[in-house]
Amino acid sequence: MINRLYKSKAVPLILQIAALIVFILLITGGLGIEAESKKVLSHLRNTNLSNLIVWSYWWPLIVLTAVLFGRHWCTICPVEMVSAITERIGFKLKPGRFIKSGWVITILYAIIAIVAIHTMGIHRTPNKMAWYLISLMLLAVIVSIIFKKRAFCSYFCPVGKLLGLYSLMSRFGIRVKSTNVCRDCNTKECISNKLEYKTVGRSCTSGLYPAKLTDNRNCIVCTQCIKSCSKDNVHFTATENRYFGFDFNNFGTAEVAMAIILSGFICYEILSSWKVSEEVLMAIPNYIYSLISPDLIGRKTFDAIMIFVLLPTAVMTIFTTLVKFTGNKPWIFYLKRTVGYILPVVAFGHLFKAIIKTTSRIPYWKYATTDPVGSKYAKEIANGDIVLHKPDWIGTLVISIGVLVLLFAAYRSLKKMFSDQQLNRKSKTIYLIMITTIVILMLFGPITSLIL
Ligand code: SF4
Ligand code: SF4
Predict the structure, then answer these.
(1) For the CA of 209, the nearest atom of ligand 1
(2) What's the maximum distance between 2 C-alpha atoms anywhere in the chain?
(3) What is the distance in A from the centroid of ligand 1 to the CA of 240?
């Protein structure tokens, strides 16, 4: 059924056009909408329909689809469509080695997490959200005017890379039906240079050879290879991955760095949802800040650097070094595993946060749909003229589901780790301690809130 849809010439083009219209409407709905007072702003982010959709529904939904079904957001992403058009009229240069290394994406992701999200709060103000979307689109246009072959999606888009890491959890992906058919294929439309700029049925502009796909990281499920293959040998299917599928050795250092920052970010997102766990997490940054009080950067930026970069790097370095003492492989071999075994907990932790967000915003829907700008209702809610009602049982249900989701992630991670034949018993014991510690830390807030 799904493959019949993917073979259709109209898919994903028609969906991308629809997504582009929605994208423009979301930008228009947020542009210029701000509030001076912090209290009003804390409600405006949810009473403004565009901001509510982007951060509380669109973003959680694409995380969910990536974890379950791979990079399907990329399938319908309007930015990909705009890049595909603009690259035809551009310089078509080949990206250099540094760009291809993946570090540009990791650096961009770090800037977005530290500066744009934590320091500037782009998710808290509709106007900033609108400018964030505009900036992404502008960057995509500039990159695709300069470089060839979907360079923005492959080497610049932090959203795509994040979804790529999460899509490693998905059991589904694009694969060939038979590698023998590919071996004997002499037309190889899927990688043919002649088909590079075809509107429908292009060769893979992400530089992938479908016959060699073993994980979902870089495949944006654009479905072009399904259409281009004259042997009808490519399909979207359940893959052979039983737990979560990827070979740690394929992990690049830039991806490892991105996964470390992502772990810090998601741990913060979960732990800061409850006062008690936030205090535990912030104890170290607060202490260091009181010692050095850096004047060069603001407090929020300092906290973000500590929590998203330095703390997770320290934790992963410690565990990796401990495991290294138990085995004779290179340190980087163990670092890739450290990051790889934490990744499912991070991805499912992100889902947990997504469930909290989507459900906690339900009381705002009535107001956001009545007045999509949201300024009037934000003021009335802030002044206490409107009282929002959220049944307690929803919070309890969400937390209970989230706890189960995290336990499931830990189970998957442990199962994968125990089946790792390149690790000895001592290494596995340390990874067991690491995974258990991180899950307990992440569950600290939700469980105490259920008990107390
Ligand atoms: S995916 Fe299709 S076009 Fe590509 S090598 Fe295999 S059979 Fe040939
Ligand atoms: S392998 Fe390439 S062409 Fe095929 S769906 Fe993935 S990104 Fe698209």
Answers:
(1) 4
(2) 72
(3) 20
